[in-house]
Write a structure and sequence with these properties.
Layout lengths: L7 E5 L4 H12 L3 E6 L2 H14 L2 E6 L5 H15 L4 E4 L17 H28 L3 E6 L12 H21 L4 E8 L5 H9 L4 H10 L9 H12 L10 E4 L18
Parallel strand pairs: 1-2, 1-4, 2-3, 4-5, 5-6, 6-7
Helix pairs in contact: 1-2, 1-8, 3-4, 4-5, 6-7
The chain binds nicotinamide-adenine-dinucleotide.
The site of nicotinamide-adenine-dinucleotide has 29 residues, from α1, α4 and α6.
Length: 269
């Protein structure tokens, strides 16, 4: 019996990256896991990996910026597994062409990033919470970012979406704490996923060297892995975290502990 045997989990954006690693880890711990993603081949492969790991996998093709797709993702999960206990609202996009200031950002870019990174949190919660209530409680973990707390140049929509993820997390936690539904956010630093590899490739030059350079900007000396994120999400979703709601947790190798004036951790080495 795994720690999550009998539990039903939905992971948005679970076909790749942190979502994939977390979905498989839930499977390894005995959960039934629905992967909601736009990427069908990759999502179906993750569902098979969940089965192999000892859980039960389901792929639901869904664009979670759309209400109808979110409702269907929840409905298909309930039809397959009987309910919903845990939602990892993980999906997120940061397209390279969106690295622009406010004046250069198009309305379409703004709407798409806010739609995927923030509106999906609202929509998935809206449809999953009634199912959690039927089971006497549940846990929602929203994937924000260190960019929800501090910022950088030329990312207006992404910054707003991640700040919104944190604010929505606090707000929903208050509305549902009395129903034993906990709502928590995580703020990853740089994590080795397709999103980061795409950014590294766009710099030109040697991708591995670029990823290593990203790692050096984190005091711990490396960027994070999907497993680092999965470990935190599984803890927050477990009963061991039963007194935790409405807060956020940095999983960032010390990134935000460092002030800009520090000149980089290990600058003296
Ligand atoms: N990678 C990082 O360094 C980093 C750092 C901080 C926060 N984050 C956040 O972590 C989360 C996961 O990021 P990642 O790096 O694993 O991303 P990723 O690009 O590696 O994977 C994202 C997944 O989301 C899916 N997806 C995209 N749009 C979708 C949509 N509309 N509907 C359903 N699925 C969709 C993709 O198909 C893919 O499977 C995101 O919210 C991201 O903003 C990432």
């Amino acid at each position: 019996m795994g720690e999550f045997s009998g539990k039903v989990v939905i992971v948005t954006g679970g076909a790749l990256g942190m979502g994939k690693d977390t979905a498989i880890e839930f499977g390894r711990s005995g959960a039934s896991v629905a992967v909601a993603d736009v990427n069908k081949p990759a999502g179906q492969a993750v569902a098979r990996e969940i089965d192999k790991a000892g859980g039960k996998g389901l792929f639901v093709q869904a664009d979670v910026a759309r209400a109808a797709d979110c409702k269907r993702a929840v409905d298909e999960t309930v039809a397959a597994f009987g309910g919903v206990d845990i939602l990892f609202s993980n999906v997120g996009i940061q397209p390279l062409e969106s690295y622009r200031n406010v004046e250069q950002t198009t309305e379409e870019q703004w709407d798409r990033i806010i739609g995927v990174n923030l509106k999906s949190r609202f929509l998935m919660a809206k449809y999953a919470i009634p199912e959690m209530r039927k089971r006497g409680g549940g846990v929602i973990v929203n994937n924000a970012s260190v960019q929800g707390i501090q910022s950088m140049r030329r990312v207006p929509a992404y910054a707003a979406s991640k700040g919104g993820d944190l604010s929505l997390t606090r707000q929903m936690a208050l509305d549902y704490a009395h129903e034993n539904i906990r709502v928590i956010a995580i703020c990853p630093g740089t994590i080795d996923t397709e999103m980061v590899r795409t950014a590294a490739r766009a710099e030109g030059g040697d991708v591995e060297a670029t990823v290593k350079r990203y790692g050096k900007s984190h005091p711990i000396g490396r960027i994070g892995t999907g497993k680092d994120i999965a470990n935190m999400v599984l803890f927050l979703a477990s009963d061991r975290a039963s007194f935790i709601t409405g807060s956020y947790f940095l999983v960032d190798g010390g990134y935000l502990a460092m002030g800009a004036w520090a000149g980089g951790a290990g600058a003296d080495k």
